[in-house]
Amino acid sequence: xxxxxxxxxxxxxxxxxEFGDLTVLVGPQxxxxxxxxxxxxxxxxxxxxxxxxxxxxxxxxxxxxxxxxYCSLYFGGGLETVLQAKTAVLRDGKRVDxxxxxxxxxxxxxxxxxxxxxxxxxxVLQDGWPKPFMGYSxxxxxAMRKFSDLLRxxxxxxxxxxxxxxxxxxxxxxxxxxxVDASIYVGSTLELETEGMRKRVVLKPPGSDxxxxxxxxxxxxxxxxxxxxxLYWLMPSATRTRRADLDTVxxxxxEMGLHPQAIVSFGLLVLELLAxxxxxxxxxxxxxxxxxxxxxxxxxxxxxxxGVEALRRVFSLDHxxxxxxxxxxxxxxxxxxxxxxxxxxxxxxxxxxxxxxPGDENxxxxxxxxxxxxxxRIAQIVGEAVSR
Length: 388
Known about the structure:
There is one protein chain. The chain is an alpha/beta fold. Helix content is 39%, strand content 20%. It has 13 helices and 13 strands. It is globular and about 60 Å long. GO terms for molecular function: ATP binding; ATP hydrolysis activity. Residues 194-291 form the ATPase AAA-type core domain. This is ATPase AAA-type core domain-containing protein.
């Protein structure tokens, strides 16, 4: 899918997004960004989602309202009416019949092509181990169930032996591990241990024999660790650079709990995903992510050597190896799109602010969808008061 248009869905009055290699969605809370990316997955992976739900015993096809029942299962409890009779969804300009999404025909592919890391990921490891698909309440959204179950499979099949989970040389390049360690784990190791015949993920501070349970970690470590495990899934070891069928990665609010330097480290991981051939969609409230996108867009116009050198400094990479240099070089050739989910009296409309030009006459573009405009307004107010 290259373009998704949505009319009259939940809070969204008119949403229109053309996707680049990296697409960033910004906007205030409850502006429909999460619904939009979940809708993207529902359309792309209709067959895989139906297969999952049927395998776990769900039946939504024999009620009075097929689409309503599906929305309750997929988007979560309370969202069964998010699609109304007046709702229109267009994929690459063609109208989508959501009845066929809710009940795809037998020839629909069951391969999963979209990997969604949800905003609620902190709940996945609450007891130190990922919950299974059926470990959640009926009203919990499919995206959280699916992500949790994939992490469970990863832990059982790929990382199931006791020992370090981070740092783990087979999963990330050395510079990426160092960046994540310096900004998030600060010398601590993520380990898998068995306590009372039950496995759990723990954090061991440097120089300590004691293990900290999940709820004793910092907020940023709790938020980032499920995301890290999701990246492990996307970056398989050995000779494979990516999961065969997956082509799009969606990450909701990756900045939660993270210091700006840790967000920069995350940005480097996003460039690794792009270099591996994934298309990435982010929803965010962080101006740091837009700082990075703006910088890369600007640097794409200079010579490759100068661009790579500047990115090396942006990401604080002292002596990057050639594979990391290749990641930076590839980043300068990608297409970056940014959209603002703008709340109006009639509902939320999207606006293309991809240029991120701080000198643009359009304040939505100059203010980066409100993410930088607030700081600028405060500075102006204070400056006026001080000058009086």
